[in-house]
Amino acid sequence: MIATRFAPSPTGYLHIGGLRTALYSYLWARKNGGEFRLRIEDTDQKRHNETALEAIFDAFSWVGLQYDGEVVFQSGRADIYQKYIDQLLDSGKAYYCYKTKEQLAHDREQARQRKQTFRYDETWRPQLGKVLPPIPKDIKPVVRIKAPKTGQIVVHDVVKGDVSFQAGEVDDFIIARDSGEATYNFVVAIDDATMGISDVIRGDDHLSNTPKQIVIYEAMGFDIPKFAHIPMIHNKNGKKLSKRDGAVDVMDYKRQGILPEALLNFLVRLGWSHGDQEIFTIDEMIELFDPKNINSSSSSFNEEKLLWLNSHYIKHSDTDRLVDELKSLGTNIENFKNKTALIDLCKQRASTTTQLRQSVKDILNSPKEYEPKGVKKFIKDSTADMLKSFVQLLKDHKESINTAQDIEAITKPFIVENDLKFPQIFQPIRLALTGKTTAPAVYDMIYILGVDETIDRIQKAVAHNFEA
Ligand code: GLU
Prior knowledge:
Helix content is 46%, strand content 10%. The protein is mainly α.
């Protein structure tokens, strides 16, 4: 069975790159009818940091990624790690090392002076016929694994191809500290093996850890999983995406008014492609995703593309969905009579749900002030009379107005009879209805607001001479 996992360290928020890794792992598991597991890498912490965990769970639930089985917390698995460390010690594949931190610091300094990479000198590595030094008193040992001394360690990577490391590059590294606590690469390898993970999909910042993890798999006699190391996401300048480039916290995108399906669509394409298709539903992603097609070079974050995708998903969302989104942003239009027409009008021009909310509010709230630049440009001496006649026109036809087209049908002849240019009538109406000249189509707005409200707003604007 295919089993993948996402293994975040609880840092306080879910990084956008982490979500991409999670998505790829999720898609591959779902495509194969396998399992997608969640593991929290919290060994560094004395206790769970609840807020940091919630940040991960909140982000998962917002985007709708569902994991299988129980969440695995590394902080609760010390006994399991101890069991495997004991096994390696018993089978002679690991050994105690009594070198002190001071001695190691000294060795490290010497290597630095010789301009060599530091490697543990194997003082305590047992070997046939070798006499080990006497065990010093009062020193708690660390546990080191016997790493291979010759040959190569090859990572067969689905994205990068075969990546070879000389065995000499990996020394007898520590798998348990003098406190007894297991080290990072050890616990990752033990977890992946004992959780039955078949495919490890993760950022390529972990590629350099992989040979060590392979040494552990081999020492334990575990099957080595398939690896897919994904290139990092870069900013426009080709540097690793960081907080300085804007939002890296997944939930910031929610706050900015990005829909989760747009974010997932954006992320799936950030480093993976299927022909030149840009729009993918989650089901299509599941059907088409294959780690083999992950780009081997880094991808760059393109905010315009995210906004383009988001406006696509906003346009294709139905009224109920967008009404819910607006409600979560604090604007409730559930009981507004013409909510579908209002949403349909505003969603055409919105790249984010926060913009959508703004245009909805611009229409629903009677203006408190009139944009002075627009007033100066479009409100002339003759405007008040023209608007009064327009109000009369609306009054006369009130009973027969049922659609935006009905309003258009009576307005067009009015424009011709009064010899008006479009901006001469539409901009004053926009200003009267919303206080702005950038508002959407006038006929739609009048229909949405209703004739009475429209008349009210126009009369108020005229009475105040377009002043706040
Ligand atoms: N905990 C690691 C991280 O957050 C991921 C480890 C892994 O995927 O093997 O970067």
